[in-house]
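anyone seen this seq b4? input:
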Amino acid sequence: MRDEGKILDRALSLHNKGDIAAAAKLYRRIVNANPDNLQALHFLGVAEAAAGNIDRAKLLMKRSLEAKPMNVQFIENYAAVLQRAREHEELVRLCQHGLQFAPTSLGLLHGSAAGLLALGRHLQAIEQLTRLLANHPSHFPAHFMLGSALAKTRQYEPALASYDQGLRLRPKFAEAHLDKGTIYFANCRYDDALLAYDDALALRPDYTEASIGRCYALIQLGRRDEALAAADHALGLQPDLPEAWVGRGNALLELDRRQDAAQAYDRALAARQDLASAWSGHGNILLRSGRQRDAEAAFNRAIAADATFAEAWFGRGTSSLSLGRHDDALTALDRALALNQNLTGAWLAKGQVAYLEKRYDEALAAWNHALARNPDQPAVAAACLRARMHHCDWTDFEAGCQSVISSVRNGTTVAPFMFIAIPSTSAEQLQCARSWIGHNFGAPSAPAWRGARHDQDRIRIGYLSADFHQHATSQLMAGVFEQHDRAHFDVSAISIGPDDGSDMRRRLEAAFDRFVDARPRSDAEIAELVRALGIDILVDLKGYTRDARTGIFAMRPAPIQVNYLGFPGTIGAGFIDYVIADRIVIPEHDFDCYAEKIVWLPESYQANDRSRAISDTAPTRAEHGLPEKAFVFCCFNDNYKITPTVFSSWMRILGAVEDSVLWLFEDNATAASNLRREANARGIAPERLVFARRLPNAEHLARHRCADLFLDTLPYGAHTTASDALWAGLPVLICLGDTFAGRVGASLLNAIRLPELITTTPTAYEQLAIQLATTPARLAELKAKLARNRLATPLFDTEQFTRHIEAAYIAMMERLLAGVPPDHIRMGHSMAESERPVAPPAPAQAANDPPTSDISA
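predicted toks r here
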């Protein structure tokens, strides 16, 4: 073609002015006349790409790369087309080839990094972007791309620095603020995340993704109403956006509006049936509704939709944990954490599994992971304190206790069973329990029991427990189950714990009118079972102890629901009507520290089984590592009940009683090692501490004969362990505590008529221990009195106790049948007041003390 060069110059001029269509016509004239004009071929490809004809553009531009020498601009332009076509492998190959000729080319470095990012090859992308910025530091897109790549490889702080550098170059780039919010959220920095999302919305008020991010951050900050508003703002922008409906569902779930939340998740699924987050949301609703098995099915649907969705694995682990399937729970939680190390809830649940399995080191490690990601978690700090107490690791113990108490006073949710073991008041324990109930069972569901009562000639009692096997609760209660008057009571066991195959399990199965193994069932299924059985009085023998299923009681399956024996304190819930106690464990001036109405039994509240066997084998001190001639103090309480204050008292006692030893239960080797170290620090030779391992119950009872005096603990004292000692003939010395957990020993000693072993101050406790150890005649007199009283006083009179608790059940039923609400019930005494030993003094009854029914037993 004549004047081909002039036509090309004219075409390029038109192209540069933006008249691409006119330029394309001229390029085609040139190419038609001269197919080997590579420059015309290339720019015609550029024009075709501008017109959206990507395939045509690629064919033309690829031919143009045959130019000699290599034209870097051609490669850069073709790279841009490949990036637009999302042909990332070819893009990376092309850019790497071009960089051999132009190693600092901005276009090629950018194209290569973009392709690598799209292919998920983040480390290589970081290398390219670092190289790009070294040569072109003002190229702001590279800073944002580098931030994204670093975030994908969990290099969060460098990622944030890259975004900040980019924002200095382009402050109004809303997408960068959104990405910063995502990083902050992933690292549990929810306040910072919220600020970043707000910055994005300030620049783009219609930025839907920022509104959704804001919703999630507000949920984590507990600002649920604002979270709902943020979700609604996103839906106002995009009414059918599934992620916005999930955010709305999550906010509604946190507000305990479960039905509305379910509708929101359904809207999300209507738009995208395989949306894992929506199925997971349904799973969370079902979990909170006590339908653990249905929840597990929902989480499985979520996992089937997206096996990389960590929250679904977390949900499945939580449902397995709530059903007592610890191995399944751990497998799912580990999968969740492999996908998202910052999933704080999964670390908490993993720690809980380890704690329940008595693997305290693992529990601490998991909980510390959670704290490392979000230090502002007082409930987790409280759990760590409890785990360290099992190890008798008292580092910063006093400060830790005060921190937990302050948290409870400020409304933080702390596990009540962890809280009662630290020095606290009954009022604080009530506040703790109420916070726990409010957090976990906020809005009551429709009650399973709807007011109907079967025409029954006997009162139907249901005992619900996870401990119907070889367990302290069953050791205390087995005789009561057998002694129940079947003429007036129909008695059911609802077991939510394992069958250990023990003789105790077989004995319990035979002790009830019916024994239901309900462990695999969900809370909702068990609540329906209770209702179908026509249970009048459902007794919770667990409270907040291991494997409790409080959610069953929250569904109100029975007209009367009772807190008894398992947990020494209040449940703090309106759905528990009564707590069974006595005048020592709950003094009448403390009635307002309990959410339940109190039933005061005439003697000790604690059941005991008079038929417990003690091995006939005569144990020797040598068999247990004890010196033959020394005075042996002992305490077989769990290690977490030993506090620095109590231990210091014990060491002063040992220091005053020459050659005496302290015989302790060893729950774990770490605790034994720490206690020996603490003894040495207090000037007592570590070998004066002797440790006992677990033994079969009959042998454990028999070994008490090797000890001289049992020393109790505070603030959480001996319960079953005190009964063990007294049943075996070993005197128990206690210091009266301020709360239920620290007053049980006094209750037992009163019931066996040994109030002289109750002290009221640490000084008196130490003095009496030393006096008994150094005055053999007085100790012998006490042991003789204990031997006389053992079978002649109420403590071990199982039949009499059963009649007392049955009278309490009858009093509860009488109020129900009379149509009056539960009230405090003061049971009458079976002996004259003048015959009763005197308990330690308590404050006089105030004018606002509780009105009670007065029932004779």
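The first strand starts at residue 459 and ends at 465. Residues 830-857 have pLDDT under 50 and may be disordered. kinda curious what u guys think
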